[in-house]
Design brief:
The chain is mostly beta strands. It contains one helix and ten strands, in the order E-E-E-E-E-E-E-E-E-E-H. Helix content is about 10%, strand content about 35%. It is globular, with a radius of gyration of 15 Å.
Length: about 150
């Protein structure tokens, strides 16, 4: 979920199921950048992270792009992927990483005064187990306090 000036990434937990999200639950104050619903049990093991996309090598990746505010463009030069993220739409984009490593996610659509700082990191891990391990560790280190 793009926003001025960050890429918000939603990872399903070990169950592989995404928890429900709602725009009404988005809150920068509680670091709930994607509006994850705390009442949905499927989201208890989910992770939301800004500007970090970790994926396994050799597996097709489906990113469902959207935007909170203006048109952004999800650009992964190393994957030869560029796709617009449009408010009110969910736009799918596929790619399959073939090598491990770290590269940059960029916004390729002028989206405001700080467009140039809208960058993220793509990390391609050796396998799915490495990605799941990272998600589990990152989830432990990231605590979100939800407002009731």
């Amino acid at each position: 979920v793009a926003e001025q000036f960050a890429w918000n990434v939603h990872y399903p937990g070990a169950d592989g199921v995404f928890g429900r999200t709602s725009p009404e639950l988005v809150s920068a104050a509680t670091a709930n950048f994607i509006g994850l619903d705390p009442r949905d049990p499927a989201g208890n093991d989910d992770l939301q992270m800004q500007n970090m996309l970790r994926v396994p090598k050799g597996k097709p990746v489906l990113v469902k792009l959207s935007s909170k505010d203006v048109i952004h463009s999800f650009f992964l030069p190393v994957m030869r992927v560029k796709q617009d993220a449009i408010p009110g739409m969910q736009v799918p984009v596929w790619f399959t990483p073939t090598e491990t490593g770290v590269s940059q996610i960029q916004c390729a659509q002028l989206c405001g005064n700080n467009h140039s700082i809208m960058r993220g990191t793509l990390v391609v891990e050796e396998n799915e187990e490495a990605v799941l391990k990272w998600i589990t560790e990152a989830k432990k280190a990231t605590t979100i306090e939800f407002e009731e």
